[in-house]
């Protein structure tokens, strides 16, 4: 585990992510803790919510979704002596297993075992519907998302007139990528918000007009404004702020 002390400075500087803790709990569980600063009061919730959404919903993962063999009459059959693990899977050169000790099958007698695997890359999760296994193809329920959990919290510093905040972001991954890689990919995806205009988000006309008059044209513009900034907009209410924030959920 790597840990670094957090030093807080009240000086103005460019916002950047910094890793303050990183560890590997197991082959299938990586942890990372990051900070982003300086942020104006109210921005942490907005950015934290957006990052959590990008990490949990936008990142893709690769999984085995089907298994097929001419030697297995049904999905729970015993197929030979010894143990078959993930290290016995022959993968394309561009792929590798996260945990090569993962159990695949128990063998009770010598046989020629050949199982074809279908590999897919996608988001979220996929629950296969039960099928008739006449073609000896067996679907596998999978969770594509590489992120196991995300938390964010706030640290405030400074006086009342110049109060600023630090965003703490904790990321747990399944080992297919590191938390740092996940953060980089999610941040890259958020940059795409520059091209998503507010009028594409189907906001109610009154909220849309309030934002447009304040030169908030894209979701990234919305992300860069704190709650206090938005509440200063004429005719913009707390309910409108919550509604707008839901665009990032």
Automatic annotation (TrEMBL):
Superkingdom assignment: Eukaryota
Task: State the Pfam families in the record.
Answer: RNA_pol_A_CTD, RNA_pol_L
Q: Indicate whether Transcription appears among the record's keywords.
A: yes
The cross-references to Gene3D superfamilies, in alphabetical order and at most eight, read: 5' to 3' exonuclease, C-terminal subdomain, RNA polymerase, RBP11-like subunit
Check the record and name the InterPro entries matching this protein.
DNA-dir_RNA_pol_RpoA/D/Rpb3 (IPR011263), RBP11-like (IPR036603), RNAP_asu_C (IPR011260), RNApol_insert_sf (IPR036643)
What are its GO biological-process terms? DNA-templated transcription
Q: Which UniProt keywords apply?
A: DNA-directed RNA polymerase, Transcription
GO annotation, cellular component aspect? cytoplasm; DNA-directed RNA polymerase complex
Q: Which GO terms describe its molecular function?
A: DNA binding; DNA-directed RNA polymerase activity; protein dimerization activity
Q: Which parts of the sequence belong to the DNA-directed RNA polymerase RpoA/D/Rpb3-type domain? A: 31-200
Q: Does the keyword Oxidoreductase apply?
A: no
Q: Which SUPFAM superfamilies match?
A: C-terminal domain of RNA polymerase alpha subunit, Insert subdomain of RNA polymerase alpha subunit, RBP11-like subunits of RNA polymerase
Protein name per Swiss-Prot or TrEMBL? DNA-directed RNA polymerase RpoA/D/Rpb3-type domain-containing protein
Organism encoding this protein? Gossypium tomentosum
């Amino acid at each position: 585990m790597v840990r670094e002390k957090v030093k807080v400075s009240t000086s103005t500087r460019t916002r950047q992510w910094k890793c303050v803790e990183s560890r590997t709990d197991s082959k299938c569980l990586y942890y990372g803790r990051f900070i982003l600063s300086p942020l104006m009061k109210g921005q942490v919730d907005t950015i934290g919510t957006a990052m959590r959404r990008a990490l949990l919903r936008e990142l893709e993962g690769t999984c085995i979704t089907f298994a097929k063999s001419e030697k297995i009459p049904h999905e729970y059959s015993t197929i030979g002596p010894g143990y078959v693990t993930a290290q016995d899977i022959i993968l394309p050169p561009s792929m590798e297993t996260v945990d090569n000790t993962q159990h695949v099958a128990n063998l009770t007698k010598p046989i020629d075992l050949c199982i074809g695997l279908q590999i897919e890359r996608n988001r979220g999760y996929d629950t296969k519907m039960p099928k008739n296994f006449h073609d000896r193809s067996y679907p596998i329920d999978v969770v594509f998302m590489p992120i196991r959990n995300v938390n964010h919290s706030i640290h405030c510093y400074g006086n009342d007139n110049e109060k600023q905040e630090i965003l703490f972001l904790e990321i747990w991954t399944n080992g297919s990528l590191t938390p740092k890689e996940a953060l980089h990919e999610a941040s890259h995806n958020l940059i795409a918000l520059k091209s998503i205009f507010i009028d594409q988000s189907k906001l109610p006309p009154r909220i849309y007009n309030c934002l447009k008059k304040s030169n908030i044209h894209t979701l990234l513009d919305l992300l860069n404004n704190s709650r206090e900034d938005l509440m200063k907009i004429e005719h913009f209410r707390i309910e409108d702020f919550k509604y707008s924030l839901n665009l990032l959920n």
